[in-house]
């Protein structure tokens, strides 16, 4: 019985492939998935291998390649962030009520508005929900099979990207966090934005 043929070793990563990967990730408005990169790479170049080489090349530089939200994106090196926050304009921060609602949605999704209110112990105003929608952090996830068929809410890929998570599995386990408020741990664990006031 003949032995199966050996798989060919992957081609060495070329400078052209690295330049294409870097340009695509830089130009993209969202994390670049490996299959998206693969479609523009020269024949014989494997996207995952190219991205690994690019991450290695950029390690320790001012901008590094990180895996986030199911793809890859350029991010400021963590050790430089404190310096840059002095001069770089920070995006508008969400109020505390919106961050609390976001935390509940992240951990309980898909979840209805009434369920969010029950966990928070406070009402969820339309303006708070609209703030989360405008930020692209939550989106409708169908309707619950219950009287009135209320809308179910869940987080989006933008949520993962904003908090530097690869997937929802990266969320801290609630039981590992010490807090009397189901939402507060998310602020600390995800280094979320501080409150700017707003509804309770």
Task: Please give the CATH class of the largest domain.
Answer: Mainly Alpha
Helix content: 25-40%
Number of DSSP strands?
5
Helical stretch tally: 9
Shape: elongated
What ranges have pLDDT less than 50 throughout 5 or more consecutive residues?
Answer: 176-200
Q: What is the beta-strand fraction? A: 5-15%
Spatially, the strands of the biggest sheet line up as: 3-5-4
Beginning-to-end CA distance, first to last residue? 73 Å
Oligomer: single chain
CATH topology of the largest domain: Arc Repressor Mutant, subunit A
Task: Report on the biggest sheet.
Answer: 3 strands, antiparallel
Mean pLDDT: 80
Task: Write down the Rg.
Answer: 21 Å
Order of SSEs, N→C? HHHEEHHEHHEEHH
List strands and helices in order, with pairings.
Elements: H1 15-27, H2 34-38, H3 47-58, E1 63-68, E2 71-76, H4 81-84, H5 96-108, E3 111-112, H6 113-120, H7 126-134, E4 138-143, E5 151-155, H8 157-162, H9 184-189
């Amino acid at each position: 019985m003949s032995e199966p043929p050996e798989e060919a070793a992957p081609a060495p990563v070329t400078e052209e492939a690295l330049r294409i990967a870097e340009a695509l990730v830089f130009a993209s408005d969202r994390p670049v998935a490996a299959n998206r990169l693969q479609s523009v790479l020269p024949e014989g170049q494997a996207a995952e291998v190219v991205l690994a080489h690019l991450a290695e090349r950029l390690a320790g530089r001012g901008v590094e390649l990180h895996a986030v939200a199911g793809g890859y994106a350029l991010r400021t090196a963590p050790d430089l962030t404190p310096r840059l926050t002095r001069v770089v304009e920070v995006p508008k921060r969400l109020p505390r009520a919106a961050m609390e609602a976001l935390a509940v949605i992240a951990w309980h999704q898909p979840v209805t508005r009434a369920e969010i209110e029950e966990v928070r112990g406070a009402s969820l105003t339309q303006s708070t929900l609209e703030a989360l929608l405008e930020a692209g952090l939550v989106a409708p996830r169908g309707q619950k099979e219950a009287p009135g068929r209320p809308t179910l809410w869940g987080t989006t890929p933008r949520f993962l990207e904003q908090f530097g998570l690869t997937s929802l599995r990266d969320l801290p386990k609630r039981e590992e966090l010490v807090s009397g408020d189901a939402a507060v741990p998310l602020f600390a664990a995800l280094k979320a934005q501080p409150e700017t006031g707003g509804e309770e």
